[in-house]
Design goal:
Blueprint (H helix, E strand, L loop, with lengths): L2 H13 L4 H24 L8 H25 L3 H5 L2 H8 L2 H6 L19 H4 L3 H4 L2 H10 L1 H26 L8 H12 L12 H33 L35 H6 L5
Helix pairs in contact: 1-2, 2-3, 9-12, 10-11, 10-12
């Protein structure tokens, strides 16, 4: 078998999972990724300090393995730049970079947990890629609701600044509201119904304002959910349900509708032969 044949064979094994060898390679790679994640997580547990040297050796072993795999992918790909600048190419590179950064900053070794992104290859192994097309509905809904959500976030941010400033004026540093930013933090925590309890109003007026912030929070939380849900429902409708009337621009007609339910005009363009055979309306 020539050099080109070996390269082509390796390319099909490494980049595709529709062959037994390619599937075995992907499964082995996923197991290695999972094992490397377990090592990183155990290394952060205080009770396993005595295994530090072992974990260090394993982490570097996995790093060398993934670096060799990354270089192999570049070497056998017909167009290496396409792989390097692809999504999976960037993810594979991120699996190696944290180990290099760890040479300069020891805490950077925990960034190796980024390797969990490589587990996305399980979609290819389990033949789940067709299901990922359903994610397009989410992207369409996000794009459609982007402007509304931006306006909503700007309004909520303004409310939080106002509430935080009022609480700072009412309570003051003597009650734990040491600054306006700290008070805005309290407003965010309260409006999102998280309620850490590290800062609480003590005066009746401050408690009244806190009650208003809580009630406003319950009202505000439902808004972005409703916006996104409406856009998602619109995106998931069949194309014909979104047909817009060319006259009055009403959308979302019934699937079998031929005429607009608002103005009565035809939703579909008439064929020339059918239009010629019709008698003119009086």
């Amino acid at each position: 078998m020539g050099k080109k044949s070996w390269r082509k064979h390796l390319y099909s094994v490494v980049f595709f999972s529709d062959t037994p060898a390619g599937r075995q390679f992907d499964i082995a790679l996923l197991l290695a990724i999972f094992a490397s994640l377990v090592v990183v997580m155990l290394d952060s547990v205080p009770g396993y300090d005595r295994y530090g040297e072992l974990f260090y050796a394993l982490e570097w072993g996995f790093t060398i393995l993934f670096a060799a795999e990354y270089l192999l992918r570049i070497a056998i790909h017909p167009k290496p730049s396409h792989y390097v600048f692809s999504f999976y190419g960037a993810v594979d590179l991120l699996a190696v970079l944290p180990a290099v950064l760890a040479l300069l900053l020891s805490e950077a070794q925990y960034l190796l947990i980024i390797r969990v992104m490589r587990m996305l290859r399980v979609f290819r192994v389990l033949k789940l890629l067709p299901y990922l097309s359903q994610a397009n509905f989410l992207l369409v809904a996000l794009r459609g609701s982007r402007q509304k959500i931006i306006v909503f976030l700007c309004s909520v941010t303004t409310l939080m600044i106002v509430f935080g400033t009022l609480m700072y004026v009412i309570e003051g540093p003597e009650h734990g509201f040491t600054s306006i930013p700290a008070s805005i933090y309290w407003a965010v925590v309260t409006m999102t119904t998280v309620g850490y309890g590290d800062m609480t109003p003590k005066t009746p007026l401050g408690q009244s304002l806190a009650t208003l912030v809580m009630i406003t929070g319950y009202s505000v939380i439902a808004v972005p959910t409703g916006i996104f849900t409406a856009e998602l429902a619109s995106a998931m409708q069949p194309e014909r349900l979104q047909r817009t009337c060319p006259t009055c621009e009403k959308s979302a007609h019934e699937p079998d509708a031929a005429y607009c339910s608002r103005c009565g005009n035809a939703l579909f363009p008439r064929r020339p032969e059918s239009a010629a055979g019709e008698a003119p309306r009086g």
